[in-house]
Amino acid sequence: MSLESLGWGPAFTHAFASLVSQFPHPLVPGRVVRQQRGLLTVQTASRAVLARTAGRLLHQAPGAQALPTIGDWVALQLPDGEGEALLHAVLPRTSVLARREAGSERDGQLIAANLDVVFLAAGLDGNFNPRRIERALSLAWSSGASPVVLLTKADLQPGAASLVAEVEALAPGVPVLALSARTGEGVESVSAHLPAGKTGALLGSSGVGKSTLVNRLLGDSRLVTQAVREEDDKGRHTTTHRELFVLPGGGLLIDGPGMRELGLLGGEDEGIEQTFSDILELAEGCRFSDCQHQGEPGCAVRAAVASGALPEARLASYERLRREQAFQARKASVTPERENRRHERARTTMAWDALRSKRRRD
Length: 362
Ligand SMILES: Nc1nc2c(ncn2[C@@H]2O[C@H](COP(=O)(O)OP(=O)(O)OP(=O)(O)O)[C@@H](O)[C@H]2O)c(=O)[nH]1
Ligand SMILES: [Zn+2]
Fold this sequence. Notes:
By secondary structure, the chain is α/β, with parallel strands linked by helices. Helices cover 36% and strands 20% of the residues. It folds into 3 domains: 4-90, CATH 2.40.50.140; 96-263, 3-Layer(aba) Sandwich (Rossmann fold); 268-362, Orthogonal Bundle (Ribonucleotide Reductase Protein R1, domain 1), CATH 1.10.40.50. It has helices spanning 10-20, 55-60, 130-143, 160-170, 187-192, 210-218, 222-225, 270-275, 277-283, 300-307, 312-332, 336-361; strands spanning 28-36, 39-44, 48-53, 73-77, 85-90, 96-99, 109-113, 117-123, 146-152, 176-178, 199-203, 242-246, 252-255. It has a 5-stranded mixed beta barrel with strand order 1-2-3-5-4. A two-stranded antiparallel sheet has the order 6-7. β9, α4 (160-170) and β10 (176-178) form a beta-alpha-beta unit. The longest helix has 26 residues, at 336-361. It binds guanosine-5'-triphosphate and zinc ion. Guanosine-5'-triphosphate binds at residues 152-153, 155-156, 180-182, 204, 206-212, 257, 260. Guanosine-5'-triphosphate binds next to α6. Zn(2+) binds at residues 286, 291, 293, 299. Residues 107-262 form the CP-type G domain.
């Protein structure tokens, strides 16, 4: 596989050449094509290897942003035989998509690097929310890549055309495509935005149809590119990896369950987020990113209540809903083992009670 087909260009050649001279051992360039937590797979011109980040890079890196992420071009020291390669350096990025952590001193968490296009997918079914698209757009713009909005599940929405117009109005100059991964309608216009050698990332909350779309785009090549799915130690499918797929037309697309955990695009609490977007926006101004608005210093939400900008009753109903939701989430997360232990304890208690009452009778 040539580096050019993975998106390599003259700027990288240049950066790599000046970097290599600083290392005593031979290095080869490659691109991070798969990431599962800290485990990276790097594709070089000759092969794909697992790579470990060199200790020096780990310790010298000024902040998390300097560490390798999916889409990065890196300099590797290949192993003599089998085994892991050592990743010594990350080449300067042309763009970087990071989760924003408002009010925090820390760097944003990296999502992907060296993107030309960021596809923001939103479903045209029940949860359609232009506000969320707006927020996601600002994140995409700040990456340095160009956003393209994908309105999925168009087959479920007879009024798709007017919603496209609505989104176009809030995002002047941004292509807005309606498509259906189910019928295939509009899917080819997605590939048209990703010519050979260009890299895109697909972002969107769970259920908007990202996997279905990727399957459509990949066609038969999915079977080749899809590696064995990892399982964690409990045999569950892990949901954190990101992968760079080569589309039949030569475009490169980063996707994976890890691409949906973008706070801005909403998750399970998106109903609440939607309803109380004003509070969430205020909360971005809180000093602590995990502020509970319970009297922490620098709390922008409490400040808004104090100034009268946010009615106290509205904050109270938001907090009540959050508590209910947290309770539901805890209930849902009772694991079988925990459930077993509870039964175990109940049986033991019953045995003791029986023994005690027997003693009393004796
Ligand atoms: N009607 C319709 N349903 C679709 C379309 N695309 C996906 N779906 C359905 O929507 C559901 C979610 O699709 P996925 O492709 O798994 O969504 P996802 O965004 O990958 O979700 P995660 O894997 O949880 O991140 C599935 O039941 C799909 O069959 C579409 O274009 N039209
Ligand atoms: Zn606060």
